[in-house]
User: Fold this.
Amino acid sequence: MSASPRLKDARRHPRVDIRLGVVIHQDGFEIPGRLRNISASGVLVELTPAATIALRLTPMMLEIPGIGLFPIKVAWRGMCRFGAGFEISEAMRHHLVTQITALKRSNVQGTPARNIASVLIAPLIVTSGPRIARTFPISSGG
Assistant:
């Protein structure tokens, strides 16, 4: 019997590796985390051990500095990290793809993640069902 062929990544949207601080808003609490990768359909977020214990599988919002605040749903949870999908409209997904493209372009050009807001497009507000996904105004300084 021959060796099995390599499995191909069947994700719908390509991921962009990034190291960026984020905040999870859940049940009135703010849980700090670090974004490891992002795609138009979801994210991989790292947490401290204490934050991992505090994280519940209930609805939450993910705040990505310079990009926006998005409703997410946890798909899986591991030791000190979790994967989640965005629960957003197609219009907001299109906006997110534009933002991810800017992230990818800035990574290629060597822009530090902490300065990423300066290369992103203007803010957009889109309603996604009963929740609102919103983006933040972009500032050139900090």
Notes: Strands lie at 16-26, 29-38, 42-46, 60-64, 68-78, 81-86, 125-128, 131-134.
